[in-house]
Design goal:
heterodimer, A: 172 residues, mainly alpha, Arp2/3 complex 21 kDa subunit ARPC3, B: 267 residues, alpha+beta, Thrombin, subunit H, 2 domains, 6-stranded antiparallel beta barrel, 2 helices, globular
Chain lengths: 172, 267
């Protein structure tokens, strides 16, 4: 368990460093991939809702620290995102091969809408047209491209979900 | 558990929002950002050859068209440079003869050149740069790219800083038309463009006019930027009977959505 925590933290920390140092400056057709969000999806699907929420909170804090953003802003969004994906992974999305792809696509859209809404609530100037029309579709596509290698890597590092190994034991 | 984390996030956000820039959360963030900095620098160095390779191929694809345009522009600029040199020398001579007192100029600033790390805002309106207060950068320092103003410093840590670009809606810079001296404000326009606002209808501003920072000589509100930093070129200027000001669109001299390195001016 504690080794799992260390491995997860290492994965999330690496994702945040890569995102803030390299990935966030990539601009393809107006969209930017979000490595941290894709990593969070993978961890949440493999480890469930509670892990998803905790990892989302930590990842958000790290991002806001690295980017000198407002502390708590990204944490709030990623905590909710991690919990939601985790619940989906534990229930409907369990053992579904399309779960990572579907989760990334849906969460990227909801995360963008959530971030936009939060910025509006906080009184920030935002351009909804650019975020929801110009950048969203390329962003979703780029995140989907990242999904396969990132999910495979996270699954290799963290192993199969606990419920999957328990089911194997029962059948054996 | 989830509720606790969400409430904790909201509490952090609320405290961070209210406290001053030297408050405990900002301090902790500075320490965290400094601790993460070596990892970011290392990662960036590893990725640099790949990024350069991508840039090389990307440049190759557009090189032919760009080469032709640049040749034409070069010929025009060479002529302008000669005219400008002559005018500048005349200007200097006249100032000396008149003992003319002027605002602080660009020569009183030094440059800190640094790399852009990314966009922390997710909306393309801010940049995280790889230099901070330890490099002499101060809050509200002007930030340039290719000699043109792109924004100002709005967040600062010892090793990194956040630049708010001119296209951000919170940005407003006093500016003037170099041709006619018409004063106005550079603000964000529609769809990430720039607008030269608050220019009264009696002023002459036309397409192709160069716009630069105006500076300010009012002692109570000293200018954030020195006078004469180029900002952009007017692309359209119009007016209506009902509006008190002209509607002027501007295009920046640089591509604000694709900045890889910037220069911060410090005194």
């Amino acid at each position: 368990m504690s080794f799992d925590v260390l491995k997860t933290f290492a994965l999330v920390f690496a994702a945040v460093v890569l995102q803030s140092a390299i990935v966030s400056s990539i601009d393809i057709a107006g969209g930017t991939p979000d490595l941290v969000l894709v990593t969070l999806v993978a961890v949440s699907l493999l480890r469930g809702a509670i892990w998803g929420a905790a990892v989302g909170f930590i990842a958000g804090l790290l991002i806001d620290t690295a980017n000198l953003g407002r502390l708590g802003e990204t944490s709030l969004l990623l905590t909710v995102a991690g919990y939601w994906i985790g619940r989906y992974g534990e229930t409907t999305g369990r053992d579904r091969t399309h779960a990572p792809v579907l989760s990334v696509a849906v969460v990227t859209i909801l995360y963008s809408v959530g971030a936009l809404a939060l910025h509006v609530v906080l009184g920030d100037p935002v351009d909804a047209g650019t975020v929801l029309v110009g950048a969203l579709i390329p962003g979703v596509l780029l995140n989907l491209l990242l999904t396969f290698p990132v999910y495979a890597l996270v699954r290799r590092v963290l192993g199969r979900p606990e419920w999957a190994t328990q089911e194997v034991r029962l059948l054996g | 558990m989830v509720g606790v984390l969400a409430v904790l996030s909201l509490a952090l956000l609320s405290i961070y929002f209210r406290e001053s820039s030297d408050g405990p959360l900002h301090g902790a963030q500075d320490v965290g950002a400094t601790a993460m900095r070596p990892f970011q620098v290392g990662t960036e160095r590893v990725a640099r050859p790949f990024r350069d390779l991508y840039g090389w191929f990307d440049g190759l694809l557009t090189a032919k068209d760009e080469n032709e345009k640049l040749r034409e522009e070069n010929a025009r600029l060479r002529l302008e440079a000669i005219q400008n040199q002559t005018a500048a020398q005349e200007n200097l001579d006249l100032k000396q003869q008149l003992d003319y007192q002027d605002l602080p100029g660009l020569e009183e600033y030094r440059s800190v050149n640094t790399r852009v790390l990314g966009d922390p805002s997710q909306f393309g309106r801010k940049l995280l740069i790889a230099a901070g207060s330890s490099n002499g950068i101060r809050m509200n320092a002007p930030v340039l790219s290719a000699g043109a103003l792109v924004g100002e410093i709005t967040e600062l840590s010892p090793d990194t800083a956040v630049v708010t670009l001119l296209t951000d809606e919170s940005s407003a810079v006093a500016a003037y038309s170099i041709r006619t001296g018409a004063l106005g404000l550079i603000q964000s326009g529609e769809g990430g463009s720039l607008a030269f606002a608050n220019v009264t209808k009696d002023k002459d501003v036309a397409r192709g006019d160069l716009v630069a920072t105006a500076g300010s000589s009012v002692p109570r509100l000293p200018s954030l930027f020195p006078r004469g930093i180029p900002i952009g070129i007017v692309t359209s200027a119009s007016q209506t009977d009902t509006e008190p000001f002209k509607q002027i669109q501007l295009v920046s001299n640089v591509d604000l959505s694709n900045l890889r390195a910037v220069t911060v001016l410090v005194r």
